[in-house]
Amino acid sequence: MLQPRIPVNPLPTGTPIPLTHPAPDPAASVEPTAPAPVVPARTAVQLTPGSALALAAGGGAVVLVVGTVLVSMLLAVAITGVSVALIAVVLRLLVRDMQKGR
Fold it and tell me: Is this prediction's pTM over 0.85?
């Protein structure tokens, strides 16, 4: 019931059947009258010493900001983990004391 059904060719010939495409209508093709617009070639970016220095300083600033954000997130996770661990120890001690009846 749930087996796949594979179509079977009743008469395999082994020869490829070419696809037929309709011939283009010569009256339908119209030559463009206006020439295509010319796209200007891209110019290479030229860096002056001042712009190269500004680019390096900007890249350095980005690296410092991203590094600061990542380190602060790591510290936040570490502080949260230590806080949860201390709370767990305190609760464990309180529960132990309550079970002993103190």
Answer: no
